[in-house]
Design brief:
The chain has about 100 residues and is mostly helical. The two termini are about 25 Å apart. The protein has three helices and no strands. The chain has one domain.
Length: about 100
């Protein structure tokens, strides 16, 4: 199901990205997506280096939980950026 992104929201993003048209906004979003991909890789690398089990490892468990939550938040942000990019690709603002 396609959800239309409000043109006001797209306008706000275009301004924040310094974009003068939809193609520039798409390029800006792609740069953000690339940074999120790098963050995802970094978080996964950190998680993979956490010890599996340790006695009295409350801090280890907390750090593992924070990293997992961070990874989930980054993935949700990437999904949102994908939807936002699709709005620009459909030229919902009418500014190609």
């Amino acid at each position: 199901m396609r959800t239309k992104t409000g043109s006001t929201e797209l306008d706000a993003w275009a301004t924040a990205l310094g974009a003068h048209n939809d193609n520039e906004a798409i390029a800006g979003i792609q740069r953000l997506q690339s940074r999120l991909d790098s963050a995802t890789d970094d978080l996964r690398a950190c998680l993979s280096q956490m010890p599996e089990s340790a006695r009295r490892a409350k801090l280890t468990d907390e750090v593992r939980s924070w990293l997992a939550t961070g990874l989930q938040n980054v993935e949700e942000s990437a999904h949102f950026l994908g939807r936002l990019k699709a709005g620009f690709e459909r030229h919902e603002r009418g500014e190609s």
